[in-house]
Fold this sequence. Notes:
The structure holds 2 protein chains of 2 kinds.
Chain A: E1 3-5, E2 10-14, E3 19-21, E4 24-26, E5 31-38, E6 44-50, E7 56-58, E8 64-68, E9 73-78, E10 87-95, E11 105-106, E12 110-115
Parallel strand pairs in A: 2-12
Antiparallel strand pairs in A: 1-4, 3-9, 5-6, 5-10, 7-8, 8-9, 10-11, 10-12
Chain B: E1 5-7, E2 10-13, E3 19-24, E4 31-37, E5 43-50, E6 53-57, E7 65-68, E8 75-79, E9 88-95, E10 103-104, E11 108-112
Parallel strand pairs in B: 2-11
Antiparallel strand pairs in B: 1-3, 3-8, 4-5, 4-9, 5-6, 7-8, 9-10, 9-11
Amino acid sequence: AQSVTQLDSQVPVFEEAPVELRCNYSSSVSVYLFWYVQYPNQGLQLLLKYLSGSTLVKGINGFEAEFNKSQTSFHLRKPSVHISDTAEYFCAVKSGSGGSNYKLTFGKGTLLTVNP
Amino acid sequence: EPEVTQTPSHQVTQMGQEVILRCVPISNHLYFYWYRQILGQKVEFLVSFYNNEISEKSEIFDDQFSVERPDGSNFTLKIRSTKLEDSAMYFCASTSFGTGELFFGEGSRLTVL
Lengths: 116, 113
């Protein structure tokens, strides 16, 4: 069985500061990894995904994440955050390399609050 | 841009009542899902649906839950007799071959009193 751990439930930062949201996963097979963002009163929007290839993945809104197989991590980073980045961020994993059955396992989420 | 739409956005019901949550997946998608998020907890997989049948379900998805694709566009989640612990945000999602991701709706918040 797979699991996802987001170590920080809340991360407060100041505007224009860098941020890293941590995600670790456990899975006995190859994985696909995702970061979703949920703005207040909205649904889940895909930020970025790792399926294969380069371990550094770039997503929307200036976010990027690095897949580290040896550390089983997929941390999300942004060099300079904006007020509008305030949202809940979810890391998710899909195990297995094939198929279209997207049964995802989610972490508990990290609330990023960007202060002026 | 195509999107997954869900109705209602918020429903309040009494314990023991039946509830139907509706979803319109993206039109050319073939795989459909329901997830739920109890306040303050993880987003959890409930059920996946393909080719007019359930392909996988979680332990949460007991006999009180059912899913249906009554026509070519809608995908519904029914809870027959709601319990207080069914209060949650329910997300519908869809995908298809080659998309590499799940597309989520904005969620339906269910409050059971």
